[in-house]
Amino acid sequence: MIGLHTHETVSATGTLTGDGDDATGFASGEYTTPDAFPQARRSSVERVHRLLSSFDYEHTRLRLSELSRRAGLPLSTTHRMVTELLELGMLERDEDNFLCVGVAVWKFGLLTPKTYGIQRVALPFMQDLYATTRLPIHLGIPQGNQTTIVESLRPQGTGQERPRIGQRDPLHVTAVGTALLAFCDSGFQERYLTDLKDHQGADAPEMIRRELAQTRATGCAISKRKTAPNIAIGAPVLDRAGRPLGAVSLVVPEGTSTPPYDHLIRCTARAVQRTAWEQGVA
């Protein structure tokens, strides 16, 4: 298994290497007892996650030293784990010998039910809406206190490249996220708003609370927080219990009248929802 070594070695310079030199703070003796193995496995998975999470759209290729620094792991640990990840196809090297995310990770991602199922169902309807409007269309799913974009159709040109697939934002800052949050259960909403109050002050939750009520009343959320001066309109896709599976949004130019675009995005979300129910995705 990846990185599950139960011993440490000392380099020629006297530096401790192996599992004991990582950033988890485990002492060398902790890996020698059976009870320590579950903890060692968790820390190994965490280190792999930290390595893979070091890659993003701005850092798609990294040198070993850069990967070590961004992951917060010692160079010796990074080198050892990268060697294993290369053998497993989870990392690859490009023509310039930079490290990149491997095809194996991409294949795993394709199997994620929360993304694959709803993305597969929604894409044809998103394509129809894009053919009608030629405006940016996005699909997001809830992930804890954030929304993650899992599909995006947009025209070429400056300013139309974001959000990118995989981008995550707090629920309240996008139309997709607001549409999701408005249909989460009330307990989750209150916890979210309480946390927002702690970080942004007393006024922020009340403003968001009004937006959530408006979204539930109209069936769509309207926001400019991430798209200003353009306007984003989002509508939820719900499961049979009324919980949000995802949300689709349309970004219209500044000064555009919201109707009929709010009607179009609601119709698209409902078509996705109906098909998801029929295909057992919901």
Automatic annotation (TrEMBL):
One of its GO terms (biological process) is negative regulation of DNA-templated transcription. One of its GO terms (molecular function) is DNA binding. Residues 12-25 have a biased composition (Low complexity). Coiled coil: none annotated. Residues 1-25 are annotated as: Disordered. Residues 42-110 form the HTH iclR-type domain. Residues 104-282 form the IclR-ED domain. Keywords: DNA-binding, Transcription, Transcription regulation. This is IclR family transcriptional regulator. It comes from Phytoactinopolyspora halotolerans.
